[in-house]
Amino acid sequence: MSNNLEGITSEVLRAFRKYTNAEAAWSDEATILSAPISGLCLDSLDKLEAIMQLEDAFNISFDEGDIENCATMTDLAELIEKTIARPATLQ
Amino acid sequence: MSGMSLDQIAGRWLRARVSRSGDMPAAELFSRLWRSYRRLEVILKAARYVSRSYHLPAGTSGFYAILKAVRARHPDYMPALEIANPGVLRFVADRANDAIVVTIHNGISTSIMEVLQSRGRQCSLMTTRRGPGDFERFTLGNDGFGTIHPDQNVLLRARRGIRSGTVIFCHADSLEQHPTERRTRLRIGRNIFEFARKIDVRVFYGIASVSERGAIVVRLVEPGYRLGRCSASEMVEDFVAFLHATLGCPRGRIVC
Q: Does the beta carbon of B236 lie under 8 angstroms from any beta carbon of chain A?
């Protein structure tokens, strides 16, 4: 798994796709990446699991407030990129 | 009395009893009215189960009516408070680093949070509804706890609370119509138990009820299972069994 933005974005898509059934929505990755996460058919447990999967994948720990500020999966991928770049003591 | 609802009849009866109470101390008056109510409870409950959506088989149905009637004469009256198993409550208040308390909606369930808060432990309630509750809530006067409102991020917020040492309370029940009988029943959801397993947080069961003598009884219990060794479904079943045993309600009144 690559830690550049492209690799991170793929991992974000994989994590969230697992919890949604709307296959049609995933046919256009650009659209789904910029679509509001709140519009995906995810309940709170699905979202938590997707976030924890990403934390495990990148060995990071999110601040939950930062996640709430991520409206789209692109925002989330950028947050992961920033978090990885941050010194470990600040995470 | 023709044309009066059961609530109106009960209200008139309560006012009459209070007006005849003379110099009777508030605690004794409350206790007597409560005992009378318990004798009539079968009839009152039967009516309320059909007509009121958020009254539970927890013996709290007449609590507010009696409290209001007593406070009309003794404005500062506060029912007695009993802690059913103080050791567990002390543990959660003082030593549990992370804890979720699973409970059910009733008018006095937040008393448990108030007791913990009075002992210096911050609590937050995960609510299942967005607006202010549509049922009355009793307060011991220490109800400054946080609330976590329901949306896609509710469990993330709960995780943040747990990480910061807040005890998270969750109402795990929802009310549904019984499929074949003319009454409602409680359904216990499993999401909160899944959540507890996921983040490996200690689970406690919490119930507040009203005793035979009219005291508010706060009960915190730690289940016997090991978190990592049972499924969320088993945890829900255990909680349902706990509720049936603690509340003394007939089997099938609470389902999972």
A: no
> How sure is the predictor about B65, in pLDDT bands with cuts at 50, 70 and 90?
confident
ipTM exceeds 0.90: no
Q: Assess whether pLDDT exceeds 70 at residue B210.
A: yes
Closest chain A CA to residue B193: A45
Listed by start position, the domains of chain B span 6-73, 81-255
Coil, strand, or helix at residue A50? helix
A-facing residues of B in 160-189 (CB < 8 A) are: 160
> If you average pLDDT over residues A49-78, what whole number do you get?
95
Residue B156: which of A38, A43, A68 has the nearest Cβ?
A68
Residues of A with CB under 8 A from a CB of B: 37-38, 42-45, 47-49, 51-52, 63-65, 67-68
Place of tokens 């990129």: A81
Sheet holding B81-83, edge to edge: B81-83, B216-221, B202-210, B99-103, B167-171, B123-126, B146-148
Query: Alpha helix (H) ranges present in B20-144?
Result: 26-51, 63-73, 86-94, 111-118
Indicate the average pLDDT of chain B: 84
What pLDDT shows up at residue B201?
Answer: 93
Decide if pLDDT at B51 tops 90: no
Under 8 Å between Cβ of B137 and B107: yes
Task: Report pTM.
Answer: 0.85
| pLDDT tens profile B93-121 | 998 788 999 998 877 888 999 999 999 99
Strand-pairing partners, residue B208, are: B218
Element (H, E) at B238: helix B232-247
